[in-house]
């Protein structure tokens, strides 16, 4: 929300956004269950070096009361502070199902602003007893359905009519629809979310969504509620299959509550009970994330979600057992159709079979437009690539059927898209289409969490740019209320190891803080009483393999969230669970010599030495490494010392430092070789101790030289790292003065490299470096794990944008690009909590022109290259000779050197 802010004679704007304890920069949130939400705002002005000196916040129960004299919930008064992010509400206690309006004004070093426009948040249902309804559903299969390894279970439809016999002031709907739901009021879909709500381990917690439906409820009139339930993750996609491994939660079910406030001050609640009517005999005959959706348009019941529909043949809704998990407001965004993708070609295969090419490996589904006879059945089957003969390549999908089926009702024109499935695909096999399909008959719907793209990055090198685009498509498509590993095969699991460092880079690209806070809670809730943490969380698969790297992602993302937001509450909340896990690992797997002996995966998916060596080979090979597990334990001891200091648990700091020193000494004795390298002299063996600061100053250069020799000589200028090593590769090379070598690795187009993927047609990031030739059983063409620290390197090294050491959350900013030879320009920006940070540099002959942008209410420390021999100018003024650092307030600046 943008509102006017007048400062002196200049007029800018304030971006006013509402924050709760778990949701940063979420505008006008509905149904939060936090008693002390946190509020943020952005100040935009053209006056340089502007910073806030004070603020005043008003919070009221109605817009009419939003004045200093009337604010009935909170008037902060003038508070002398430069805080403008995550300011905690400190007013009256908040009640369930209430709306809070607020606005702010600020004082700056250049004057006072006007009041902002109003914003609001809604308090949800804070207590279990606030839910008046009961859970309804059908806890059984119907005769036309089957429960088997490949189940067939249709959608459940529920409806209820009610009368709003007065003038409606406000109507609010609360819904928990498991596994997935769509809510309709009087024939209109509520909201634009798809595949809602966000997935969880439903034995631990379930999320409710809240909607303001005031405009949809008719005053002094009859109204109708319609809810469709899909299977989602609740009704497991593979029934009775490896029950020791895969969790099953039950049949779809619904809890619903509609709160109506009338203009006369009265209040009415309509909730789910056995007076609702329901059926499973509708058009969605099957829906499954792995296998697709089967839709028979002949089974449609027109007007079922409107008043007057004849539901006499429907069943009475049945009371069912509620899920075991706690009810919680969903603070991360639901998924949404975020983009439409038009196909680029359609090619006939044989009689009545065509291959549609979207031109981009994407995640979502296809909208179909068709004319035909009643009973005609069109099938859409999805894949990421093609066989040499033009057929879909589906072997890498394992047993996922990935097929949507539409049965025509024979209308003049029928337009359809699925409700409760998604696919990872570039190509679609269209079968039995009546007539000759045209490109205009299809639209791809790109689906991911409704979060903004906040980063922009571009360079003079097209390989770097295409890798960035491939990364964007892969990262976005795999945001599914949790970060999943891949969107296409029969897996789609939230593996922890895939995002350990990747999440750090992603945060410069996407506004994903709420998603990752939610995922941290998924991880915490998946922890066993003994302290163990799984490799997949939520633990849909029971993989508690015990290793340092995958579960350690828990600490690394918490650390990233603190550094990028400054929010210590994340650390306070998760500190006990992180400590418990580290104690568990030490008790079970640290020997008397302080070596951590347990690792599960090693440097997962290291590239085979040549393409020939990798052709047809299975990549699912585990190479456990005590070097990796011990190095990571050392690294986490330093991280936990930081967390203990920030959370005030000072008694733990010394214990962590003592244990870190013992582990560090043991690591040197066990793994350092007198030739000057670690372990087996593999890239990852040397990268980790260098990255973690484990190498003595006297040995650093020798170890680094071995790393460089491996790349330049043994690998002929290529990497040989897997998932673990790649997470530290680009930054370590740059930190030790070889950004040029990092750039070579990033721009290579030969195997193994990110550019090799592009050279072989990739439009996302592969799971394997040799993904074009590897055995198909583990060979996703849309993964993000091999990005490693590449996106971090793009933003923090090539562009030089980092949170400052003095103040996390980009309140203080560090600007220190690596002006690496081989690039003519880098243009990057990142929309932080305070506003846009920009770093654009370009070579002009022998000179560099570097433009930076610093948002209001922040400062930036600009670090210039140490080897500059020319004079440096800042906005046309020559800096003193030898000056290498410049402190800047907000504004836009230009350096030339």
From TrEMBL:
<dbReference type="InterPro" id="IPR008902">
    <property type="entry name" value="Rhamnosid_concanavalin"/>
</dbReference>
<dbReference type="Pfam" id="PF05592">
    <property type="entry name" value="Bac_rhamnosid"/>
</dbReference>
<dbReference type="Pfam" id="PF25788">
    <property type="entry name" value="Ig_Rha78A_N"/>
</dbReference>
<dbReference type="InterPro" id="IPR035398">
    <property type="entry name" value="Bac_rhamnosid_C"/>
</dbReference>
<dbReference type="Pfam" id="PF17389">
    <property type="entry name" value="Bac_rhamnosid6H"/>
</dbReference>
<dbReference type="InterPro" id="IPR016007">
    <property type="entry name" value="Alpha_rhamnosid"/>
</dbReference>
<dbReference type="InterPro" id="IPR013783">
    <property type="entry name" value="Ig-like_fold"/>
</dbReference>
<dbReference type="Pfam" id="PF17390">
    <property type="entry name" value="Bac_rhamnosid_C"/>
</dbReference>
<feature type="domain" description="Alpha-L-rhamnosidase C-terminal">
    <location>
        <begin position="800"/>
        <end position="872"/>
    </location>
</feature>
<feature type="domain" description="Alpha-L-rhamnosidase concanavalin-like">
    <location>
        <begin position="350"/>
        <end position="447"/>
    </location>
</feature>
<protein>
    <recommendedName>
        <fullName>alpha-L-rhamnosidase</fullName>
        <ecNumber>3.2.1.40</ecNumber>
    </recommendedName>
</protein>
<feature type="domain" description="Alpha-L-rhamnosidase six-hairpin glycosidase">
    <location>
        <begin position="454"/>
        <end position="797"/>
    </location>
</feature>
<dbReference type="InterPro" id="IPR008928">
    <property type="entry name" value="6-hairpin_glycosidase_sf"/>
</dbReference>
<keyword id="KW-0378">Hydrolase</keyword>
<dbReference type="GO" id="GO:0016787">
    <property type="term" value="F:hydrolase activity"/>
</dbReference>
<dbReference type="InterPro" id="IPR035396">
    <property type="entry name" value="Bac_rhamnosid6H"/>
</dbReference>
<dbReference type="InterPro" id="IPR013737">
    <property type="entry name" value="Bac_rhamnosid_N"/>
</dbReference>
<dbReference type="InterPro" id="IPR012341">
    <property type="entry name" value="6hp_glycosidase-like_sf"/>
</dbReference>
<dbReference type="Pfam" id="PF08531">
    <property type="entry name" value="Bac_rhamnosid_N"/>
</dbReference>
<feature type="domain" description="Bacterial alpha-L-rhamnosidase N-terminal">
    <location>
        <begin position="166"/>
        <end position="338"/>
    </location>
</feature>
């Amino acid at each position: 929300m943008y509102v006017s802010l007048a400062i002196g004679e200049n007029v800018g704007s304030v971006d006013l956004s509402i924050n709760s304890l778990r949701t940063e920069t979420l505008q006008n949130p509905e149904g939060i269950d936090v008693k002390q939400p946190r509020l943020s705002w952005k100040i935009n002005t053209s006056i340089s070096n502007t910073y806030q000196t004070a603020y005043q916040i008003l919070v009221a129960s109605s817009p009419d009361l939003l004045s200093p004299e009337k604010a009935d919930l909170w008037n902060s008064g003038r508070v002398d502070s430069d805080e403008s992010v995550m300011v905690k509400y400190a007013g009256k206690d908040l009640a369930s199902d209430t709306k809070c309006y607020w606005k702010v004004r600020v004082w700056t070093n250049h004057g006072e602003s006007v009041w902002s426009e109003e914003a609001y948040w809604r308090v949800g249902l804070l207590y279990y007893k606030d839910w008046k309804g009961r859970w309804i559903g059908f806890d059984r299969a119907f005769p036309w359905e089957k429960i088997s390894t490949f189940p067939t279970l249709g959608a459940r439809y529920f409806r209820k009519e009610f009368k709003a016999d007065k003038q409606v002031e406000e109507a609010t709907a609360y819904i928990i629809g498991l596994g997935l739901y769509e809510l309709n009021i009087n024939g209109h879909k509520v909201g634009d979310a798809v595949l809602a709500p966000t997935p969880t381990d439903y034995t631990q917690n379930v999320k409710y969504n809240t909607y303001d439906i005031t405009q949809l409820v008719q005053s002094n009139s009859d109204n109708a509620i319609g809810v469709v339930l899909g299977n989602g993750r609740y009704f497991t996609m593979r029934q009775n299959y490896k029950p020791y491994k895969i969790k099953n939660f039950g049949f779809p079910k619904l809890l619903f509550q509609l709160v109506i406030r009338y203009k006369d001050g009265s209040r009415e609640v309509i909730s789910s009970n056995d007076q609702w009517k329901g059926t499973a005999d509708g058009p969605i005959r099957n829906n499954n994330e792995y296998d697709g959706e089967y839709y028979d348009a002949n089974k449609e019941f027109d007007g079922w979600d409107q008043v007057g529909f004849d539901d006499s043949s429907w069943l009475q809704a049945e009371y069912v057992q509620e899920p075991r998990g706690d009810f919680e407001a969903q603070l991360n965004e639901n998924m949404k159709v975020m983009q439409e993708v038009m196909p680029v070609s359609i090619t006939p295969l044989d009689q009545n079979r065509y291959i549609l090419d979207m031109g981009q490996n994407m995640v979502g589904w296809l909208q179909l437009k068709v004319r035909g006879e009643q009973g005609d059945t069109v099938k859409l089957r999805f894949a990421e690539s093609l066989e040499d003969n033009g057929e879909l390549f589906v072997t890498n999908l394992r047993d996922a059927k990935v097929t949507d089926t539409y049965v025509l009702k024979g209308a003049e024109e029928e337009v359809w898209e699925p409700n409760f499935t998604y696919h990872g695909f570039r190509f679609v096999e269209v079968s039995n289409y009546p007539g000759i399909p045209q490109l205009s008959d299809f639209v791809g719907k790109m689906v991911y969490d409704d979060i903004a793209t906040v980063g922009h990055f571009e360079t003079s090198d097209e390989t770097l740019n295409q890798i960035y685009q491939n990364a964007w498509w892969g990262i976005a498509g795999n945001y599914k209320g949790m970060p999943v590993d891949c969107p296409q095969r029969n897996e789609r699991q939230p593996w922890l190891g895939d995002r350990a460092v990747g999440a750090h880079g992603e945060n410069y690209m996407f506004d994903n803080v709420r998603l990752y806070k939610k995922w941290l809670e998924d991880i915490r809730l998946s922890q066993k009483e003994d302290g163990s943490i799984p490799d997949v969380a939520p633990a849909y698969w029971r993989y508690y393999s015990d290793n340092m790297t995958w579960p350690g992602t828990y600490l690394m993302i918490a650390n990233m969230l603190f550094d990028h937001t400054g929010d210590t509450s994340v650390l306070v909340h998760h500190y006990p669970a992180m400590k418990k896990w580290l104690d568990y690992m030490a008790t079970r797997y640290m020997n008397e010599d302080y070596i951590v002996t347990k690792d599960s995966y090693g440097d997962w998916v290291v590239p085979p030495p040549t393409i020939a060596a990798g052709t047809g080979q299975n990549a699912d090979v585990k190479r456990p490494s005590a070097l990796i597990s011990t190095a990571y334990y050392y690294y986490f001891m330093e991280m936990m010392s930081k967390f203990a200091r920030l959370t005030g648990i000072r008694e733990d700091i010394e214990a962590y430092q003592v244990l870190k020193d013992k582990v560090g000494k043991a690591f040197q004795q066990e793994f350092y070789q007198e030739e000057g390298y670690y372990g087996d002299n593999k890239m990852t063996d040397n990268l980790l101790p260098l990255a973690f600061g484990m190498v003595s100053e006297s040995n650093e250069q020798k170890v680094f030289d071995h790393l460089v020799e491996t790349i330049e000589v043994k690998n002929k200028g290529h990497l040989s790292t897997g998932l673990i090593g790649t997470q530290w590769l680009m930054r370590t090379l740059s930190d030790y003065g070889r950004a040029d070598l990092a750039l070579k690795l990033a721009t290579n187009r030969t195997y193994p490299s990110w550019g090799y993927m592009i050279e072989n047609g990739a439009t996302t990031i592969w799971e394997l470096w040799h993904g074009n030739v590897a055995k198909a059983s583990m060979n996703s063409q849309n993964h993000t794990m091999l990005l490693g620290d590449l996106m971090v390197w793009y933003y923090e090294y090539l562009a030089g944008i980092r949170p400052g050491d003095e103040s996390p959350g980009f309140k203080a900013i560090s600007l220190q690009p690596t002006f690496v030879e081989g690039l003519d320009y880098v243009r990057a920006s990142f929309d932080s909590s305070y506003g846009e940070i920009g770093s654009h540099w370009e070579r002009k002959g022998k000179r560099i022109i570097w433009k930076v942008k610093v948002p209001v209410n922040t400062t930036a420390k600009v670090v210039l290259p140490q080897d500059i021999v020319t004079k440096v100018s800042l906005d046309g003024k020559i800096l003193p000779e030898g000056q290498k650092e410049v402190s800047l307030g907000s504004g836009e600046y230009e350096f030339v050197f």
